[in-house]
Amino acid sequence: QVQLVESGGGLAQPGGSLRLSCAASGSIFSINFMAWYRQAPGKQRELVAAITRGGSINYADSVKGRFTVSRDNAKNTVDLQMNSLKPEDTAVYYCNAGVLSTWGTLNDYWGQGTQVTVSS
What we know:
Layout: E1 2-7, E2 10-12, E3 18-26, E4 28-39, E5 46-52, E6 57-59, E7 67-72, E8 77-82, E9 91-101, E10 106-110, E11 114-118
Parallel strand pairs: 2-11
Antiparallel strand pairs: 1-3, 3-8, 4-5, 4-9, 5-6, 7-8, 9-10, 9-11
């Protein structure tokens, strides 16, 4: 089994910052990609940022220049530093990872989500 646990959500003022963290644990052989998605009320889940094991990164256009994704392959963690937050960043943020298990199976895993609210 593989678990993803997020932390770091909460309330921030417009222009403020938050840092999200996600730790993967369990029967992990290696993790290919790690990503952050978000889902606002009434909207579809969307990709925020993704990073491969080799360090290739993609960002949603709406967060470029404001958010930074990083990962620690040795610790199986991925972080999302969010700066210059806007009210439209309010959403539940989910960690996502493509994991090769110790049994040789490749699966997509999700965390439980963490709420980020940007409001004055």
